[in-house]
Amino acid sequence: MLMCKRWLVCSLKGQYRSLSFSASRRSVMTAWVIDKYGKNEVLRFTKNAALPIIHYPNEVIVKVHAASVNPLDISMRGGYGAATMAMKRDPLNINQSGSEFPLVLGRDVSGEIMECGLDVNYFKPGDQVWAAIPPWKQGSLAEFVALSANEVSHKPKSLRHVEAASIPYVAATAWSVIVNTGGLNKDNSSKKRVLILGGSGGVGTLAIQMVKAWGAHVTVTCSQNAERLVRDLGADDVVDYTAGPVEKQLQTLQKFDLILDNIGGETEKWALDLLKPWNGAKYVTLVTPFLHNTDRLGLADGMMQSGVTIGCKVLKHLRKGVHYRWGFFAPSGPTLDEISEMVDAGKVQQPEYRNRIIQCKVALHSLHCIN
Questions:
Q1: Which of 40, 253, 294, 333 fits 83 for a cystine, CB–CB 3.0-4.6 Å?
Q2: What are the phi and psi torsion angles at 365 (to 5°)?
Q3: Residue 215 neighbours by CB distance under 10 Å
Q4: Residue 356 pLDDT > 90, yes or no?
Q5: Cβ within 8 Å of residue 268, ≥6 positions away
């Protein structure tokens, strides 16, 4: 379906830029889009989506070989985070409301570099890459996607595209929470005690493998059905939340240096008591009210409300000698470089149960789920 292209490498101020061209340049592509926020019925397949182009010299065009759907995509389809995403897309508020439509969802992509901007030296056309796409950008449920080069990484050699596409978003999120916010890394994690609340999901399964590879002791909460999964991934202790109050079971264990909370709700009322006091221990939750606040109150008031909320909680728990933090997804090519090395070294694997992968065969008017 794609037109044959030739690649021309030309010298420009001592640098090399890869340019693509064809007899008649395409301007449209096939994609799944939404034209308004809502439920499944707002999804629309089209053959006339605008083909992405390079606007900045550090951008690349990626041909999508495989993509995946995350819970965030489902929430965004319904308008979750719309106020914050609008600000990121249009910080000066120049465009009219609804200018993001038609919107392409999809945060994960595995594919091939097709074209590079003038300042891109780390990639070249034909490179096999993967990326976690920022939620304010057009997504991967299409034939092509435009990304900043610093959001892209070379795909693990040991994975096919359809396997690789299930990892970037959850891996980048886990890395952001553990490394950027939690303060752990491969050099300081040995013998640290880490608790992952809700460890059988996408972020949890990646987090288990990361900190275990770095030498940490990992405790996980999950259902009995997921115990074998998390133990196979490296969990040392597993607490079954269906066997009774999970907080009472955890209180019988040694205290922790880091807690990653994928559950939220009532957990933070007791979870911070499980941290080692006055030892730099941190509780990081991925369940925050930030986007709900901006959706409900507007950007300014929502950010103010969020600032007051987290400020009060930080001070409250700091008096007890522990640190309270919110964690967020952070797109990063260098992060995915690290994850790619861990995958190829066998330190991070793709759990067999994962069925979020979607191979983008949009030319066939459908998205084929790979189980």
A1: 294
A2: 65, 20
A3: 13
A4: no
A5: 261, 283, 285, 324
